[in-house]
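If your schedule permits, I should be very grateful for your opinion on a structural question. Kindly check, if you would, that the fold set down in the tokens agrees with what the sequence suggests. Thank you for your consideration; the sequence and its tokens are set out here:
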Amino acid sequence: MKFLTDMVPFESTSHLKAHIVRPPFVPLKCRELLTDYILLAKTRLADLKQPLDGALEEDQDIESRKKMNEQIEDDIQKAVVLYQSSKKIPSSIMEASIFRKPYYVGKFLPVLLKPRALPDIPDLRMKFIDALKQVDKIPSTLYTNYLKACKAESARLLEGVFLEEDMDLELSEEEQLQFCLDELLKGILDNPTNRVVEQCSLLREKLKMVLHIEENRVEMYTSEPATVLNVNAANISPLQIKVVDQLLEFLACACQRDIEMSTAVSWPQDLFSVLQEMAELHNAIFIRIWKLIMEQGRDLDHHHIRTLGFCLAHTDHMTSRETTVQVCQGFCPVLQGNFTHLVWQELPISTSSWKKFSFRLMLEYIDFVSSIRKADVFQFLLPNVFCDKFQFLHGFFKDLHPDDQVLCRFGQLSKEIKSAVSRTQLAFRDWVQFEMETTFLDDMLSFADWQVHVHSTVFNSYLLEESSANGSIKDNNRKIIGELFTQLLQQEMSLKLYPSSECKDCTSKEVHKHTEETHLYFISVLQTLISYLMPGKRVASWLAEQIQDEMVRRESNLEKEFCIQAIFRIISWFPAFRLFADSPSAPSALDLPCQIINQNFTCLCRCGYFPAREAIYMLQGLSQLENAGDVDSVLLRCPLLSLSLVIHTQFTRNLIAEIYKKHTNPGLEDMLKITDWVERSRTTPAPLPGELDVNVSMRSAALLSLLHTRSLTSLMEIIRKQARSSEDRQDRVFEGFAVLLVAELIEVKSQFYKEAEQALENLLLSKPELLSYLASNMGEWESMLPQNVLHQMPFTLIKFLSRRKNTSWQSSVTYLSSVLLLHKKVVRCMDQQVPSENLIQMNDWIDVIGFVKGCFNSATKAQLKNVTKELLSDCGADIVLMYKQAIAREQ
């Protein structure tokens, strides 16, 4: 007390009043000191002409009541929302009416029953009050007084309305709506709490009048499905567009006047609650906001951007339903989710001007969210996609445009909102995704400056920061490389880099024409990072592990094929040995690379072998390995790769010879001899290299290689002279050749299709028994060829047979049984719904049935006798009927 007494000459008046009104606790023996202090403080206030008249207590009571009423109003709003969704009074309100009756009657009900002008059609608050009255939770006297006060408020509101009735009759409906908006703006500017609810009620009536909404329309918007926005082909009338523009102009004027947005101001919620009931306007409002942001954003003025931020901060008051946005008329995927979240997800950041607009819009949004919403809803209003993009833009301007004024706004944000925005650090993969959207259409950013920025961020921000945290740059390097590879793969597969030709809207967008340069630069960054990879202890290569991880995420065969094609477009920039090892001299663990070649890469084999580009790439990888045993192991464990290398002899022969010089071994020697035989046979037919003790499939592939080199004359001569040989080894060679020819016919657009048809026809003419082999069991080929090829071969062969009339092989005893066996396999594949690119069309299937029927009509007695019951078991009732009719005809 002595210290406080000494401080009296220096204390402010408010502190003195506080000590007098709320004196500190003192022991009984010190009460005299407290009395002296209070007397001295009052004397000091008198000297300063500051009388103590209880104003401090009154101010504190007013402030306390204000805060309590705000909290009660929030509780009411939450209760109304719960009542709207469940149509039941929330249990918390029922419990308060019983266990907290003084609070419920003395504080809750007075705020709930605050007099206002009631709308003609009961709103949610009215319905909630009526529900409480029906269960006797509102005293009758209090409810009656509330209705009387509301009528008096309505009468007071309408005092000036009837004076303006004549003017309303002279105005059009659109002009009356504009006049109502002007009056609402005046009411807000004069006093945000004065008559705003009543003006919003009038606005509701004017909107219904302009939009011709029936008064007794049932409010169906709460039970409608998710909002569907078709941005470029929406069924929106010019009237709706005009009304939306009027509303946006009103909001722009309100925001331009810098109206104070505090938790005590409720007019935005009242206004957007009115718009919530106008379901006819929802699509028009959302599409107008979407197009303004996505198409005109960078050209908008500051007050327009502020208006858009205000609208986005309040859209959840208008609707909480999921929104589906279709941004074009092509085959591009639609967007689904919360409307505001989708806006942040698609917010353009391609150029510096777009980045600046997006950052300003986000800052305006944050400004409104922080001033009108509470911290407990920040996580929903500031989702992860918002925080990630905001952090990216902040880092971009801080690094490349540190003097830009837009950064000053960020420094003015409160600590609470800053912590909410930066609650999670921007991940490297997300940063890469955002940077890949960068284009260079404006003069604010050059490609060279952007390259320096990217290089600095990757190596100085992410790589070093992560390595210092993890203590190992090697492990972190693999992590960073993996995330960068994944993002490059996603962009390679996306429509942004290769837009659908059918999608005119996407093709016309400039962003599709300018992302390739950023894509290629990030590939160069990935090349640099890969060069730092250090080989470990006999583990699979980083690239093999990465490919395996990517394939695990894909489900359908078509998606896997698309993914593998994109992977090859990326890894073609890397040294080919990376597929097998991190270093050419490092010990290689080849189990995973061989598994990828045999299981994942086979989806590229449309015709039973790897395409030339991919086969050459894998061969180059083998040529760069320094361990000869690794080359032998891969060729032995990947028979389809060896087969493909022989088929593409014209491209692989020289490289095989180089590998043989470096790593001499019998397998490569035999492969080289086969390729030499193909080279000789291109001009002069030569006997098949039967003296070679190699897999028969290699010699079958050599025959197909002749077909690919357009050496058709030599090939036909070999078939004519050697196909009739009875040597078992030669038979096996031609069996394999027939299998490869059928696989070649799967791809109708193959450049060798006609040659393959002619070769297969000549081969069947020379060896008709091959048809039974193709239709029944293809032996080793069933384990070598990819499953997608094996599933399509029966239908391909039966189509080939149906186009051949009066051939010698049709008289074979086994011809009919072979056709039925092929039909049976086709039916089985269809029943199992085997994934296939070449889905069987109905017209093709009808042709197949007609062909089978024709085979029965022309079948001989011997052919019919060769058909077994087991063969007929799964062919279907129509085939069995054809068989019985054919048997009856022969008898």
